[in-house]
Prior knowledge:
Blueprint: E1 10-15, E2 21-26, E3 33-40, E4 45-52, E5 56-57, E6 64-65, E7 71-74, E8 79-83, E9 87-92, H1 93-97, E10 107-110, E11 118-120, E12 126-130, E13 134-140, E14 145-152, E15 164-165, E16 171-177, E17 190-197, E18 203-210, E19 212-213, E20 217-218, E21 222-229, E22 232-239, E23 250-255, E24 276-278, E25 284-289, E26 294-299, E27 306-312, E28 336-337
Amino acid sequence: PNGDGRWERAGxxxxxxxxxxxxxGSDFDGxxxxxxxxxxxxxxxxxxxRIDTSAVQxxxxxxxxxxxxxxxxxxxxxxxxxxxxxxxxxxxxxxxMRGATHPRPVATTPLGAYPHGPIVNAxxxxxxxxxxxxxQTVRVTRTGFTGSRSVAYxxxxxxxxxxxxxxxxxxxxxxxxGSTAAGTPWNAVPAYLTTSSTSSSRITxxxxxxxxxxxxxxxxxxxxxxxxxxxxxxLVLVRKQADGVYSGRTTSVALTPLRKGPVAxxxxxxxxVRFTAATDDGRSVFVTRGDEGKITQIDTTGTKPSVLRTITxxxxxxGGGYLTTVDSAVAPYDLSGR
Length: 338
């Protein structure tokens, strides 16, 4: 928050494995001075610290600029880790909660270009990010970091769109757009589902088709992506294999096209989009209809997934509407979000 208590431009947030603390990072464009607020849910207190980052040569434009600040709450003693422009910086949470407003890092390690989706396993022992060219992870130690591992994307593509942690707590799944020449129409852009791991160098991509797509919803049985192509809309379900990779049999469920969805051969700018979410057990998948204020529920318990119902909300769900599911009986395993 600002000095007067008003929140401004919050970006990535995270929790620790005990679910006691939350860290909310700022998202001030073009600034090397960022802020992170750490909240103690048990004591109901919060403290904000200034975090210094560095400008770098951006992988997207080749120009100097700043990258997004991803946050992590990991380690013992508990540390706040942030992406800080070409590196990961670790700070003492206890120092911040004692009132340190501009703490110094207690550890640092190099990080590749353009982090755009934090990765942290369910035990908080491995963290990382999807980058411009691949995925990088590091192991968290008591004093800092060790064991940096980088793996390239299997197919030429841009970074995953907000990768999600699977219920097993070690498998990372995200949707990606394939690399294309300038001017390629949206309906000709390849869509991939990419699976990586925090416990090995394994990485795999599955071809979903072409078009625009949602961020992925991950369950214990499959990953779900809503795909808009030049010929229609569908929910694509990719089964999880025995080895934990989401690269098995693919099933599609037809969706009613968005009223203001993108049109083949025309720019997609300003068109309506969707978001997806699923129950942890995979029994239901939910898909929004952006700008229409509707959510469709897909039942996956039968021999063939089918549309169960569509509900109407009091809001239009502009921009697709962020969506998640909450089950009080399931402990969170994805410790980072936006």
